Hints:
- The protein has 482 residues and is of the alpha+beta class.
- It has 17 helices and 19 strands.
- The chain has helices at 11-16, 36-42, 46-49, 54-57, 65-80, 130-134, 136-142, 144-171, 191-196, 207-210, 213-216, 219-229, 279-317, 322-343, 351-363, 381-400, 443-455; strands at 22-26, 31-34, 84-90, 93-94, 100-101, 104-113, 119-128, 175-180, 185-189, 233-241, 251-262, 268-277, 349-350, 370-373, 378-379, 410-417, 423-430, 458-463, 470-475.
- Helix 13 runs antiparallel to helix 14 (322-343).
- The longest helix has 39 residues, at 279-317.
- The radius of gyration is 41 Å and the shape is rod-shaped.
Amino acid sequence: MTPLAALPIDFENLFTHSPNPYVLVDDALQIAWMNNAYLLTTHRSREAILGLPLLEAFPSDPESESYRLLTQSLQRVLDSRATDEIALIRYDIQDREGRMEQRYWSATHTPMLNAEGKVAYILQHTVDVTELQNLRRLRDESGLVQRANAVQARNINLNAETGRLRKLFEQAPGFIAVLEGPNHIFQLTNAAYREIMGGRDLLGMPLAHAVPEAVDQGFVALLDNVLSTGDAYVGRSASFRLAQGEEPGRQRFLDFVYQPIVGEDGAITGVFVQGHDVTEEASLLRRQELLINELNHRVKNNLAIVQGLAAQSFRAIDPAGDARLVFDSRLKALAAAHDMLTERAWEPTSLRQTIERTIAAAAGEDAERVDLEGPMVPLEPQHAVALAMAVHELSTNAIKYGALSNEAGRVTVTWHHDDEGMLVIDWTERGGPLVAVPSRKGFGTRLIERGLSAEVDGRAKIDFPPDGVHCRFTINLPARSS
Length: 482
């Protein structure tokens, strides 16, 4: 069989003499060409309408349904670059004597695209269905017109809704794409996604061809796994570098989700991609990390300087070194609290962890004789440091004179929120040597009582019953979910 392209056919002549009416309008809706059947059907001459706007050659009331249906159909073709149909439209035209005739039509509008993929012309194929419309019996028996009207109304609503959803999709602040099949062919992308990909043409192309750097950076392997397992993948601050575009080599950080698309038969047909560019946030976090590391370095240097100054100062006034040992112990407690906060980048830490680590640093293996009980309570950095210093003093006192100075004593630390929302912490010692009320307050006691009130909104009260020391801390710390 001879290929169609090889046949000596004059297609313009073919369409000109076709029995079906055709008219061609440009993207400004001006009549650029029509065939003989169209002129016969519309009672016009070629010279009378060629070059005229379609709605000027065949005027209609702008407020009428006829005008609305025709203009909306043509506009949908211009916007979507897809064929649009009008199942039934009443559009009256003048007869040869200039009188208006009531006419009904069915029309198909087909876009003709140029090399840039834009609509250059629209080919209108019209069918005069006036006689069918006027056959009342056929209309009543078959319901053809009613069904056509219903279908057309649904199509108009569906097209409007589809257009609205496409605009929302296109304008979404996060990037969105739909990939189909094992080759991850782009079916849909929005403006944010295309910007991430350097403005490249993506639709209809496999991801590996459109964005080859995605293969080397592991993104295609992730998509393959989603397709094969059906498990969604969540990426956090994933690094991505473009190999081309306006900023080749620029590093971006992305939060994204690869969500499998499941067909009606349960098979996975593609992947829905949704995410956000978090490059700025990631940059700020890295800068914050650098600043925190610098702060930690400086604080540790300052603590080392203080320790060195103390060694020189205490050498002259404390030959035995007892005062220096106490000072070093307190300085180490402060450093330990600082290290704990450093690990969490100065974010809130837990009350239990603060108490556990402070006691462990002071008591060593005897920390096993300390029982802790209470809900999960987060502490801000300033609360954690103040509480750590107070617990260190209590631990040191218990090791020297209290419940941890013998083999049988134990310490219980409990905490809760009272009816006023205050955090209440109780330190209770049992089983140690008999306790006598001290004749004066030492520095450690003053540090415990004044430290919390000076650093945070709290207070401490120490009692000395014979069976063991009891200390209660009360801190203005609102209750949170446990």
